[in-house]
């Protein structure tokens, strides 16, 4: 997944230019809250995230329903990692501090993690592959799209970041 992330990342400026292709959602059913833009690129879905700080005890420890790879574009976050089947949270095996420029992948259906921004909101770029048949956390409420001005602000922040 990391190789796919790196390939799509090279195309990100052109993909961001097509504003109409992006959809949005405010993920606020559990901390940390996430402002998310997403679109499909071939068999992959790509996401631009602004993740807001929260307390360690609030961060959602979760598995992903698909293989994924992430790049931290701006900021720093704490990430805990564990491994376990089902929906019962496994023990935390490792806690890391990931900083701007870091990239990682989650390619096993039973991998779990939480992220918790440190010192302010973070920006991250994520890609996902074809979903696994794996249970994952679902929102307990209807999620709403972002306001158009927030969508534009996020795209602009990522455009600036990827000009470097």
What would you note in describing this structure?
The protein is of the alpha+beta class. It has a single domain (2-136), classed as Jelly Rolls (Sandwich), CATH 2.60.120. The protein is 20% helix and 42% strand. It has helices at 2-17, 148-163; strands at 23-27, 34-41, 44-51, 62-63, 68-83, 92-99, 103-106, 111-128. The mean pLDDT is 96.
The name CATH uses for the topology is: Jelly Rolls
What is the count of distinct domains?
1
Number of beta-strand segments: 8
Query: What is the first-to-last residue Cα distance?
Result: 23 Å
Beta fraction of the residues?
A: 35-45%
CATH superfamily placement = Jelly Rolls
Largest sheet: 8 strands, antiparallel
Q: Which CATH architecture? A: Sandwich
Q: Rounded to an integer, what's the Rg over CA atoms?
A: 15 Å
Task: Report helical residue fraction.
Answer: 10-25%
Mean pLDDT score: 96
User: Pairing-aware structural class of the strands and helices?
Assistant: alpha+beta
The ordered H/E elements are: HEEEEEEEEH
Sum this structure up briefly:
The chain is of the alpha+beta class and 164 residues long. It is built from two helices and eight strands. The two termini are 23 Å apart.
């Amino acid at each position: 997944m990391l190789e796919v992330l790196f390939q799509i990342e090279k195309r990100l400026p052109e993909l961001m230019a097509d504003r109409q292709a992006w959809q949005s959602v405010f993920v606020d059913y559990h901390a940390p809250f996430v402002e998310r833009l997403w679109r499909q690129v071939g068999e992959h879905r790509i996401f631009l995230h602004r993740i807001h700080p929260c307390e360690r005890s609030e961060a959602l420890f979760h598995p992903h329903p698909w293989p994924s790879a992430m790049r931290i574009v701006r900021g720093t976050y704490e990430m805990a990692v564990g491994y376990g089947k089902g929906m019962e949270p496994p023990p935390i095996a490792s806690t890391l501090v990931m900083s701007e420029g870091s990239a990682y992948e989650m390619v096993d259906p039973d991998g779990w993690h939480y992220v918790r921004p440190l010192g302010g909101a973070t920006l991250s770029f994520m890609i996902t592959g074809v979903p696994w048949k794996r249970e994952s956390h679902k929102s307990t409420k209807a999620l709403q799209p972002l306001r158009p001005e927030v969508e534009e602000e996020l795209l602009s922040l990522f455009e600036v970041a990827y000009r470097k």
